[in-house]
């Protein structure tokens, strides 16, 4: 064997060993990474404990890594769970009720954590709409099958109306304000995260959720928020579900200790 060939073979052998070492180190690093839990949440203040939990590192304390994903409504989270791209979701109960009726074996309800009815509102930019009764015969934008849709039904009930007395147009929360301001509809139920932008554009709420229980006749149905998990994920990784709840409720303890902070 020539010296040149021998040097070439030794070089190739060294490169092969180096590659194997790098591969082994990479596999070891990947194996050491905390398992990811994909958690969906809405753009409302009390939902922000989800990214807060990750930012504080509480998830790491329980051996997981939270991937906090913002959604505009609950049905989109349910669809993501069905598609296998989301593990846990924080949403209003209405999409969960609808899912439980149509596909009862798809999700588990883990916890109830809030009630959002009081902070919901019905709003308009039309000067001739000043109370709920003025909505009769009008067109209203709302994301169908969501807590906002259910809240609208309760508000209409307060005025002796039903959805048969109005025309509903399905619109995602980010679009509802614009279709109303453009004149395509007369009113909407602004999603919490978009309310301030809505006010800046000239819209104004004329009915709030707290009025359902503070005036007569009362409407005693509330819209609680829930934490739900994909049944497939829960049954495959129950320890990750428990870890998420432990980390999340550590953030709840922070909120209770110092809500303003």
> Main beta sheet, described?
5 strands, mixed
What's the count of strands?
Answer: 10
Assembly status: single chain
The termini sit apart by 75 Å
Mean pLDDT: 83
Strand neighbour order, sheet with most strands: 2-1-3-10-4
SSE run:
HEHHEHEHEEEHEHEHEHEHH
Strand content: 15-25%
- Helix percent reads 40-55%
Number of helices: 11
Description:
- The protein is 46% helix and 21% strand.
- A five-stranded mixed beta sheet has the order 2-1-3-10-4, with helices on both faces.
- The longest helix is centred in the N-terminal third of the chain and has 30 residues.
- The chain is of the alpha/beta class.
- It is elongated and about 60 Å long.
Question: Which characteristics define this entry?
Answer:
single chain, 261 residues, alpha/beta, five-stranded mixed β-sheet, 10 strands, 46% helix, elongated
